Amino acid sequence: MILVTGGTGFLGSELIKQLTDKGLSVRALRREQSKIPALIENNNLINWFEADINDPSTLEDAFDGITKVYHCAAFVSLNSKHKKQLFHVNINGTSNLVNLCLENNCRLLHVSSVAALGLAKVGNKITEKNFWEYDSKAHAYGLSKYEGEMEVWRGITEGMDAVIVNPSVIIGKNAGFEGSGAIFKLIKDGFPFYTDGASGFVDVEDVAKAMTLLMDAEVSGERYIISSDDYHYKDLFSEIANGFQVKAPTKEAKPWMLGIAWRALKFASLLTGNQPSITKDTAKSSVTLSFYDNSKVISATGIKFKPVAKSIEEITQHLK
After folding, report:
1. Which are the contacts of 182, defined by CB distance < 8 A and separation ≥ 6?
2. Which DSSP helix (H) or strand (E) runs through 243?
3. CB–CB of 214/165 below 8 Å?
4. Does domain 2-175+199-230+291-312 fall into CATH 3.40.50.720?
5. Distance between CA 138 and CA 251 in Å, rounded?
6. Where are the domains of the chain?
7. H-helix segments, 29-164
């Protein structure tokens, strides 16, 4: 039987939909307060199991009869204030999953992130061979995903059958205006600025599809970048604006401007208690040029990625 962690999340719910669409039964983990997404609500092929990946005592029972595990659960934040929670969930929680997979002889597919990859040399794309040079001052989310991935590599050296995926920025209509969907809300509301940065983007449907293909492939001890297209933020914002039929951002936010912004918002958050919309880490990532090589996963699975332009068209139509 298949176990999915983070079953109520954006990626986890899409993965469960694709698995159950094939007639497969799934045991999905959820926390007591988690709401089941409409995408997979009232699905008779799902056995919901209340457990916390940071509580091994509740987690052990979830592994009864399990042979395959998709580990989608994670805490995502680029606010350094959440460092303790990021480490608790993304490192300690993953360690618990790895230990139980070893004990129960389960095959694991672990969802890491491109944030756990190293930087490419100028003019080259980032590949799976890029390993992050450890930096304790790096943003907490990237550090937590790197350390979480190290737990999986530890399990692999101890004999665990596992593969790792490193998705770029995951987008999709079911995110709404949350997570990566916040970008769409920003542009829809008339945000006038863009930054001179770039990153990879991929549709959530393709991430889930690649995961199922890799789980069934005869590969182990490998990791795969899951990314469709690289986009400069200016071009991305323009296409989103066109989808919403609003004015595209025309003003470049310079690094020094972002520096003033995140400091001012951090100070304001101390007074109001509200989370700052721009942090030091988001400001830094917004001006970083990151390009990704997806040839390894294409070679391994034959997947044909949906163009990001098509995803943007679908998302903006849905969110209108």
Report:
1. none
2. helix 233-244
3. yes
4. yes
5. 28
6. 2-175+199-230+291-312
7. 56-62, 83-87, 94-104, 140-157
Q: How far, in Å, CA of 27 to CA of 46, rounded? A: 6
The sign of the dihedral angle between the CA atoms of 24, 30, 33, 37 is: negative
How many whole angstroms from its chain centre is CA 216? Answer: 21
3-state secondary structure 83-96: HHHHHHHHHHHHHH
Backbone phi and psi for residue 86, each to the nearest 5 degrees, phi listed first: -60, -45
Q: Are β-strands 26-30 and 46-50 bridged in parallel, bridged antiparallel, or unpaired?
A: parallel
With beta carbons less than 8 A apart as the criterion, state whether 109 and 116 touch.
Answer: no
The Cα 61–Cα 72 span in angstroms is 19
User: Which H/E stretch holds residue 73?
Assistant: none
- Tokens for 146, please give them: 């790197």
* Rg of the chain on CA atoms, in Å: 19
What does DSSP assign to residue 36? Answer: P
> How crowded is residue 132: how many other Cβ atoms within 10 Å of its Cβ?
17
Per-residue pLDDT of the chain (320 residues; tens, 9 = 90+): 999 999 999 999 999 999 999 999 999 999 888 889 999 998 999 999 999 899 888 899 999 999 999 999 988 776 667 778 888 889 999 999 999 999 999 999 999 999 888 776 667 899 998 877 766 666 788 888 999 999 999 999 999 999 999 999 999 999 988 888 888 988 898 888 888 888 999 999 999 999 999 999 999 999 999 999 999 999 999 999 999 999 998 888 766 454 544 355 454 455 556 665 555 556 566 667 889 999 999 999 999 999 999 999 999 999 98
Rounded CA gap, 219 and 231, in Å? Answer: 30
Q: How far is CA 79 from CA 118, 145, 183, in A?
A: 21, 14, 16
Q: How far apart are CA 150 and CA 146, in angstroms?
A: 6
